[in-house]
Write a structure and sequence with these properties.
Helices cover about 15% and strands about 25% of the residues. The chain has a single domain (about 10-190), classed as Roll (3-methyladenine DNA Glycosylase, Chain A), CATH 3.10.300. The protein is globular, with a radius of gyration of 16 Å. Strands 1, 2, 3, 4, 5, 6, 7 and 8 form an 8-stranded antiparallel beta sheet that branches. It is of the alpha+beta class. It contains 4 helices and 8 strands, in the order H-H-E-E-E-E-E-H-H-E-E-E.
Length: about 220
Amino acid sequence: MALRGRPLPVAFFARPTLVVARELLGAVLVHETAAGRVSGRIVEVEAYIGESDPGCHAAAGPTPRNAPLYGPPGLAYVYLNYGVHCLLNAVTEADGHPAAVLIRAAEPLDGLALMRTRRAGRAGLVPADAALCRGPGNLSRAFGIGLAHNRVPLTAGALTLHAAERTAAARWTRRIGLSKGGDRYWRCVAAGHPAVSGARAWNDDARPTPWPTRAGV
């Protein structure tokens, strides 16, 4: 797939997290590796915002683990979830304001054969193409993303995010898989897309409440 223009700039991420989350829907995630290029169109994201958000890693205050959340924007925040899956987040907001967007699912574009190899189970079973990058842990595995990518810039280098070619039809729903903070409508999905993970029900509102009103948004 021919990519349109350069990767998204730091200024794209240095904005209110809900705005970034909505505009990442339809954006293309690219990873150039020695084994080949893989890419996918993002179809599901979740926003995590600040120390007052019980679902955000920053709820406990600054720690060595969550340090990337505090900035600068445009970095990858990759952590190990339940000791099994590496999850990819894009750090947002101004430097010092902990927030990020979790990349939950993508529609595979380039490198399907490589993704299938990475996602093959012990018995050699391979998920359907629509399920290769369905769910944040599966996405990271299909893309070859691990803890070594924590703190790398998503604006340059081998792991990058590129602007959407078209505006995706978005719906907001509650975040999923959380013990706290699951009541917030901060999960944004491409409505009806087969690669979306988890519950398919969504809010009828066009955007969550409250919506950022910061100047310039």
